[in-house]
Design brief:
eight-stranded mixed beta sheet; binds nicotinamide 8-bromo-adenine dinucleotide phosphate; alpha/beta; 484 residues; 7% strand
């Protein structure tokens, strides 16, 4: 009998199982395999019971069940497990077959793996998959990159199972060569860190500054979810605030205030440092999680530096509106920074990224899905070469309409000792970005003073470098001029 399998998925944890069930719903025959083989039968006898899903108990059996070219998708822990499976798969697959990594792999690993697998005559896709358990089951956002020749073989499956926007367009399209798919997914996760931190800061001000209860904040997030801030993260925050523990108290108040992280936010910041792009808001979001994790030290510090009265006086309704505007403006800055980063990466790695297409892929299915991404899509549709989101007329107007409230919220939070690192770094970036002249002239003078690093002059063409013997005791020789 001819093999029936359209695709194999290796990795039967939460993401793998749900993706398989989603593919099955869309008429594909999926072969399931897992390192711990007992989980295959467990899956077949429970979640996959009554479906056309096939189980394999060895890689050889899995391969024999697949139509050619064989498509094998890894949904395993990122890192060593992926390399180990690639090695094993290369011994059982043939040239022309396709290995797909759907985990949260580091884009640099994907760049390396694409080259390696292609050198063996096979094709490789590294794809971001976002949306968690629910997305995987009912429609994730999928961001594939890697060997372009693999895309036509994978496209029908991926676009069928992906989330769809209102007009039916799938939240999945080809991102680019090499590690482009995983880079875009990494940036998505960085932006997700930023969005979450912004919501937490708004919550913090409302809770400690305005003295609001969980129920009251639930109502605020409910209202915010019906306007320009409408998004999955605002929606789940609304629902989290309404959730009660067994004793009837808000569950959120019982949760320890130490945040975890699995690395994608940190990777985004590391890449931004290498690229020289200031994604300050995502960086603050990552560091805020680090500060939160220092619980014991914070408890000690709170005794050494006890907080003062952080209650914010005034009309609560007006303050809530100001906080909404501060959140919205900061969010615009975060996305403007994230897009700057992707643009720089595209240049560095020669990827032809479609920025409007990326907004569309993020519009549904993924954790940062929001109405806002529809506005970003429109901005790039109008001008695909838009150098910065802040130059788009819609976002320019939006930022201008929020600036007063944004400054009021940041300055009041600072005065009251409520930490707002993301709100305030967004504002600082905005003020730096819109400054024709910054104090870096003095900085260049300092660098030239102590290290003969040279400087350019306002009264000479760019690219001409000067060195001054500031002390009269230095030599004539300058350091060479380069930027790392
Ligand atoms: P996990 O990240 O928990 O990985 C579990 C799978 O990895 C199991 O199949 C396990 O096999 C396998 N595995 C491990 Br752990 N170490 C292995 C090794 N050394 N060699 C071979 N296999 C190994 O599962 P997940 O949460 O479903 O996520 C899968 C991928 O998708 C990850 O890369 C994750 O970062 C990414 N992702 C997760 C989410 C989410 O919301 N959870 C969202 C988006 C992307 P075993 O059963 O034999 O231990």
């Amino acid at each position: 009998m001819e093999p029936q399998g359209d695709i194999a998925v290796i990795g039967l944890a939460v993401m793998g199982q749900n993706l398989i069930l989603n593919m099955n719903d869309h008429g594909f025959t999926v072969v399931a395999y897992n390192r711990t083989v007992s989980k295959v039968d467990d899956f077949l006898n429970n979640e996959a019971k009554g479906t056309r899903i096939l189980g394999a108990h060895s890689l050889q059996e899995m391969v024999a069940l697949l139509k050619k070219p064989r498509r094998v998708m890894l949904m395993v822990k990122a890192g060593k497990a992926v390399d180990e499976f690639i090695e094993q798969l290369l011994t059982v697959l043939e040239p022309g077959d396709i290995i797909i990594d759907g985990g949260n792999s580091l884009f640099e690993d994907t760049i390396r793996r694409v080259k390696y697998v292609e050198s063996k005559g096979l094709l490789y896709i590294g794809t971001g998959v976002s949306g968690g358990e629910e997305g995987a089951r009912h429609g994730p956002s999928i961001m594939p990159g890697g060997s372009p020749a693999a895309w036509p073989h994978v496209k029908p499956i991926f676009q069928a199972i992906a989330a769809k926007v209102a007009d039916g367009t799938p939240c999945c399209d080809w991102v680019g060569e090499g590690g482009a798919g995983h880079y875009v997914k990494m940036t998505h996760n960085g932006i997700e860190y930023g969005d979450m931190q912004l919501i937490c800061e708004a919550y913090h001000i409302m809770k400690d500054g305005l003295g609001m209860s969980a129920d009251e904040m639930h109502e605020v997030f409910k209202a915010w979810n019906e306007a320009e801030l409408q998004s999955y993260l605002i929606e789940i925050t609304r629902d989290i605030l309404a959730k009660r523990d067994e004793d009837g108290a808000p569950l959120v108040d019982k949760i320890l205030d130490t945040a975890g992280q699995k690395g994608t936010g940190k990777w985004t910041v590391i890449s931004s440092q290498e690229m020289g792009i200031p994604i300050t808001l995502i960086a603050e979001a990552v560091y805020s999680r680090c500060v939160s994790a220092m619980k014991d030290l914070r408890v000690q510090a709170a005794k050494v530096f006890p907080p003062g009265n952080c209650k914010i006086p005034g009309d609560r309704k007006r303050w809530i509106d100001d906080i909404r505007k501060a959140l919205y403006a900061s969010k615009i800055i975060s996305y403007a920074q994230g897009y700057m980063l992707m643009r720089a990466a595209a240049q560095q790695y020669a990827w032809n990224l479609n920025y409007g297409g990326i907004a569309l892929m993020w519009r549904g299915g993924c954790i940062i899905r929001s109405a806002f991404l529809g506005d970003i899509k429109k901005a790039f549709d109008k001008n695909p070469d838009l150098p910065n989101l802040l130059f788009d007329p819609f976002f320019k107007k939006a930022i201008k309409s929020c600036t007063r409230s944004w400054r009021k919220v940041v300055s009041t939070a600072v005065k009251k000792g409520i930490p707002v690192p993301a709100f305030s770094t967004a504002l600082a970036f905005f003020d730096g970005f819109r400054s024709e002249r910054l104090p870096a002239n003095l900085l260049q003078a300092q660098r030239d003073y102590f290290g003969a690093h040279t400087y350019e002059r306002v009264d000479k063409p760019r690219g001409e470098f000067f060195h001054t013997n500031w002390t009269g005791t230095g030599g004539r020789v300058a350091s060479s001029t380069y930027t790392v």
